[in-house]
Amino acid sequence: MRKLATGLLGTVALVAAAACSESTLAVDNSRNPDQSNVLGNPTSVEQLLQTGYQTIHRASHNTANSVTPQSEVLSLESYASVANFGMASRATLPRVAIANDRGNQSANENFYDFSNMQQSVTFIAHGVEALDDFVAKKSDILGSIGRTQRARAWGFLAIGIGYGNVSLTYDSAAIYKPHDTLDPLNAPPLLAYTAVNQVALDMLDSAIAIATAVPAAEVSNFASTDWIRGLTVSRDQFVQIAHSFKARFRAGVARSVAERKAVNWTQVIADVNAGITSDLVVTLSSPLGWRHGWIYQAYVYQGWHMQPQLMLAMADTSGAFAGWLNTAVNQRTPFLIVTPDQRFPSGDTRAAQQTASGNLPGASGKPYFRNRPTGEDTFGDGWANSYYDNYRFRQLSLNNADGAGPWPEMTVSEMRLLAAEGYFYANNFAAALPLINASRTANGLPALVAADNTTQVPGGAGCVPHVPTVSGGSYSTPCATMWEALKYEMRLETAFTGYNEWWVNGRGWGDLAEGTATQWPVPYQEMDARNHPFYNLGGVGLASGSPKGTYGY
């Protein structure tokens, strides 16, 4: 007999053996009696589906023992000198492969997202099946068809987000959808990330179709504030959320520049236009089960996080960036980023910027980045050292006992800039222009005027961003054109939001440092359970590592 796979089948097997009879949900499952209790009661099934978004949030954000701290280091969104969560090994330049052997240093973190998202999605899929079984016996089991379909829609939304996140991260995964037939003795095959991504899109389409078909008179509110904590979601807003996740997943699944350009950008733009009109903000609270484990830990700062300058310093207008890049990598020292960009603290001295950083970001969330107090400097590799930390969500740090406060899972800026990217690939620069300008002008930068990709952004020597450009082994930092201005806006607007945003976008733009892994291997625990060989991904000079990036890093 083959061992059951640990990710998907760990949950599926608990109910599969009883799946052939009508009394499935009434069977006492001694291996997991709680599951039988949940699936055996219509109201409990409804609660399972309605809280599906929270379940996926926990699977992707609940703890720092996940891939997120590693992906942020890999994308140069963050840097850490501590070994926790695999960050120190991922921060190494030149890049090394993601090790996938038994007991590797990051084994638990690499497994967390894979296992928890697949198990959560499978359980939710069984919830959909259970509800459908009840409905087949009594159509108004929850009091109305509208209420039943509302629960189903939330279940399909959660399944779509869960598989979407898996498809962004791992090279392959197994799939279980509602009403799939299972072999309880054998794991479903591992499917390539493209196939997993398509399943995610299909599930989100199902969520949209189900929600749209619910008569308005039957459901006045499509969610209470605990389904996505802090939000009261109407049916129309639910549909918008599903469309926006479709846009994120369709664009983000690409592993290379070629794959990113080949994305169906017409559909991405359509989903953006049908998507959210305000930020999707979750009100976090640890006691209530809405955590963001990495943000809480990152804002301890010293050794855990600082913002490396390789990407961030594109904001600098002082001219120091080019000189810094032309210094030997491990002899580089931090320099002051002087910029008109209001997402940074203002000032021409470090003391002035420290004062401008304040004790906490203002009501607008600005500055996004702080110049930290001098006594908190904890430096590591020379190339990574800076005076700056991510600051936008400081109120969610460990300094807040409950870790409570608003955190954007998805922003309108992210969606708008995805549409701008689609227009850019279509050479429709006039359509992309206002979408890029929206966040530029909101943050004190002059609007782009020329609808082309040859004209430099306005500002002369004071332009933002400056783009690292290497020729003959020497760096210069000329003013950006539209494409680099778009990428700059996407980086700043998505920093520490969403799910592995910089890494996902960076691989599709060709911006990752040479040798950076563009996906995680299926964790060894799953491969072991399947009797499959282990394998590594990433590393300089290896086919699974990214080529030298756009900026010569």
Structure description:
There is one protein chain. By secondary structure, the protein is mainly alpha-helical. Among the domains are: 9-16 and 31-66 and 92-275, Serine Threonine Protein Phosphatase 5, Tetratricopeptide repeat (Alpha Horseshoe); 295-394, no CATH class. It is built from 21 helices and 8 strands. The strands form 4 sheets. It has a two-stranded antiparallel sheet. The chain has a two-stranded antiparallel ribbon with strand order 3-6.
Helix-strand string: HHHHHHHHEEHHHHEHHHHEEEHHEEHHH
Strand order, biggest sheet? Answer: 1-2
Could you tell me the CATH topology label of the domain at 9-16 and 31-66 and 92-275.
Serine Threonine Protein Phosphatase 5, Tetratricopeptide repeat
> Span between N and C termini?
49 Å
Tell me the structural class. mainly alpha
Percent of residues in helical segments? 40-55%
**Which residue ranges are poorly predicted, with pLDDT under 50 across at least 5 consecutive positions?**
10-33
The average pLDDT is 92
Number of strands: 8
What is the CA-based Rg, rounded?
24 Å
Strand content: under 5%
User: Which assembly state applies to the chains in this document?
Assistant: single chain
Tally of individual helices:
21
CATH architecture of the domain at 9-16 and 31-66 and 92-275: Alpha Horseshoe
Overall spatial form: globular
Major sheet description:
2 strands, antiparallel
| CATH class type of the domain at 9-16 and 31-66 and 92-275 | Mainly Alpha
